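Methods, example record. To illustrate the input and output format used throughout this study, we show the complete record for DUF4832 domain-containing protein. The sequence lines were provided to the predictor; the line carrying structure tokens was produced by it.
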Amino acid sequence: MSVRLDWRLLQPNDPRNLPANADDDALYDFAELDKLIADAESAGERVGFRITSFNSCCDDNYPNSTDISVPDWLRSVDGATQDYEHNGVTYVIPDWNNMSYLTYFADLLAALGRRYNKDERVAVFEMSGYGDFSENHVAFMRDELAIPAPEPEQSEAELGYFSQYRDQYITKESIEYLVDANLRAFPDTQIVAALGNPQITKQLLRDSPALANITKPVGNRSDSLGTYRPIPTWAEDKDSRYIQTGDPIVDLVQNRFRIAPTITEWPPQFLKGGTEREYYETGLRDVVNDHVSMTASTGFPAQRTTTPMPDEFYDLWVRANKYAGYRYAVTKASVPTRASPNSDIPMSFDWTNFGSAPTYESWMPQYDILDSSGKVLRTITSRMALRDLYADQDYDDLTANPASRTETDLVMIDGGLETGEYSVRVRVQWNEKKTDATHSVSFPPMQLAQYTRDADGGYLLGEFTVE
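The corresponding predicted structure is encoded as:
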């Protein structure tokens, strides 16, 4: 489950009115986030979340005709926010480079990290603190409010980095401060971020000194599957200066899927025109070619209608969700039918990933050797690295399945077994633990893309006799 929370929900009280040594429970209200995390645990799920300080939409109405995501008290902090009137609504938008704004938000991040970084129920934290919906751009300021952002020719002088699309307002100095605050707060949790700002991307993927202390490479949190590519425009468009100059960050972005997840979601409307078929075809193609790990199962246009989705579009939508992430199976098992007592018994198993991406968490395959009564006599830990098992993709035929990849795992029962009847099964155990966890969780073995799953989460691979 992934949630997005306004800053104002977490910090309604003005910290200036509290003692200087006030603890986190006095400064912040974690009740709603705590409940969301607890509810997810009860449902056998984990949580990802981000914090927003500006959302350009999408409430049905705004109290006092004011769109505000920051705490009310922040409006009284000199220079931290500005009010903009548009179509009868007051938009309260942070000054992204104001040090008071950045400091208060960094304090919030630090408190969130102290409370949730070591919590195994929290799987993902999305970089927060800049942009519309914390998505690291503010096109709304450019397009709707007509607030001028630096032109490309002036962007390096004004922002400290090249910005081609006039949708960036944050400076390099502010980026470094905010990125470091995010990384320091959640070093043990998978961080993902919208990669639309090239300087934020450089800091998150390569340049921040805080990267030295994180346990997982930062992943990609893209938006609007079927409309916008998971790879940001600046990192792949032929007219982008980053492409034309061969900036090394481009390859880093395009290959990030090899070590970190891409998470995305469907938009509820056709943001760039086109047909419904093109929307779902584009989504399916991008899921596979960009190795998307996870898509939201909600948000697509048909969800908002009472008319059943046409079968042809439903098929495209289903397969986009199906192909996202990993689908592992043991597709071939070579187990000798007979073996001699107390002699080494060699076996081999072909593992195939039919999905578009690997797992980025720690899942450990184990082979159980069972006697005729079903008792586990021996467990052999596999050397198969599932995170490395994925296929490069060039997916264009939308009637086909994605390319799959198969690797062989060689296994030996050292010293053999006594005379008897035996079977071998595999279980893939979840092992994504946080050191010194404040709240630990466990999950059943991975569901593989094959049949014969037993009550223990194992899959029968073969039977043999020792005689």
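Annotations derived from this record:
Residues 19 and 26 are 9 Å apart (CA to CA).
The mean pLDDT is 95.
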